[in-house]
Write a structure and sequence with these properties.
elongated; 0% strand; mainly alpha
Length: 161
């Protein structure tokens, strides 16, 4: 995630304004870099519960960019955040975090403590808690396609009459 946050910063840093920004006495570039790194770290840690990380980051740093460049900066942020989410999801599907550590089960034990077992790759639970995983509705898909075919068949008969 370090490389992704640095790539994001590298793309948006030319747009940072050199004018005085209210509330920041120090290094504006350092503040923007820190915000990029913190957002990417949060994506790596809890991407499931981080709604709209691109908007979150943009709201934190938008004051450091001229109004004329803010749309371009937001688009760059959105592109890099989407890439970070793709990387995180790819690792999660294999049972790992982007830093290489194993993902832990999302369930809680009877004592209300988090389960510390490793997950089964492709799921979010350990073997003991697989019953908590949401069922896949593969049986309903053929039924839904049959309804669609039935509707199309009805329309064809109506056109023929």
């Amino acid at each position: 995630m370090y490389a992704l946050s640095r790539a994001l910063y590298k793309d948006i840093s030319p747009y940072i304004t050199d004018e005085h920004v209210n509330g920041v006495n120090g290094d504006v570039r350092g503040v923007v870099l820190t915000a990029c790194e913190q957002t990417m770290d949060r994506i790596a840690e809890d991407w499931r519960y981080f709604n709209h990380p691109d908007r979150f980051l943009f709201e934190q740093i938008r004051a450091y960019f001229p109004i004329t460049d803010q749309l371009q900066v937001f688009n760059l942020i959105a592109k890099h955040v989407e890439r970070a989410l793709q990387v995180t999801r790819t690792y999660a599907a294999r049972g790992y975090k982007p830093d290489g550590t194993r993902l832990r089960c999302r369930a809680t034990t009877r004592r209300s403590t988090p389960c510390m077992r490793n997950i089964v790759p492709g799921t979010e639970y350990c073997p003991s808690h697989q019953h908590l995983a949401e069922p896949h509705f593969t049986e309903q898909e053929p039924a839904a396609s049959a309804v669609v075919q039935e509707l199309h068949g009805t329309e064809e008969h109506a056109d023929a009459a």
